[in-house]
Design brief:
With 323 residues, the protein is of the alpha/beta class.
Length: 323
Amino acid sequence: MRVLITGAAGMIGRKLAARLAEDKTLRGKTITALDLHDIVPAHAPAMAGVEIAAHTGDLSEAGAAARLVASRPDVIFHLAGIVSGEAETNFDLGYRVNLDGTRALFDAVRLSGHSPRIVFTSSIAVFGAPFPEVIPDDFHPTPLTSYGTQKLICEALLADYTRRGFFDGVGIRLPTICVRPGKPNKAASGFFSGIIREPLKGETAVLPVPRSVVHTHASPRSAVGFLIHAAEIDGQAVGPRRNLTMPGVAVSVAQQIEALGRIAGSRTVELIRDEPDETIWAIVKNWPSRFDARRARELGFAAEADFDAVIRAYVEDEMGGKI
């Protein structure tokens, strides 16, 4: 079993590689080779007896994707991309990385003549307002950001290439992944993690949107679980609608902060400072808040039951279980 991860240097990519190293198998087969690709070198986990190769480069460059799939990986996790805020502020870069890079990878697989399972990370940004209170699986995707538009086009490509038999694709629309470890990134959703992560470290966090904002979250631990399950699920069970909205925990920012107070105390909560940011609010206010995600749940995808569990997952995985 040969596995390729694009975007392997990112947070989810690193955690996915670590999970594969721990499991040692995928789709019922022993992992014998692991290819890690990103624009910067990715950290290679320790896997005895496994051929591990780190590749760097831009998938949208001519020939880059073909070289990457020449080894004919059995499973490809396509995580590479730039985040929502950066895609919105840099139009050309967003389309080149998020769309052109994905199309180049899909075409390289098509031309290679083998048909691997491809797991593509999409986003709830494919949906645009106005929204019902809870978004069902058949709600029409009409993105109101460049990032969401790029992801939706890639979803359509994945479904069409799967229909044609070029590969067996599954797209997973991730909710906001929270709490993200490390430093803040350029994602418009970054503050959702920041208002938990920084106070837990004893640092001030800025909240740029109203506390009434409701959003759906899943932990990095759940995100990796989504990816593994998407790689192993029966494609016939998924059917022709190859893109699935993942489950998660829908809470308001105020409820996030209340959960933080229950776990870390009121003094930690006091480190959150409200500073409205109209640029971020202009993006966030067009995002959906709650999802039914019935198809995904029926197919076995699972996330946390409440936001307390999301915070506890961060404490356990990133803080050694101690606050």
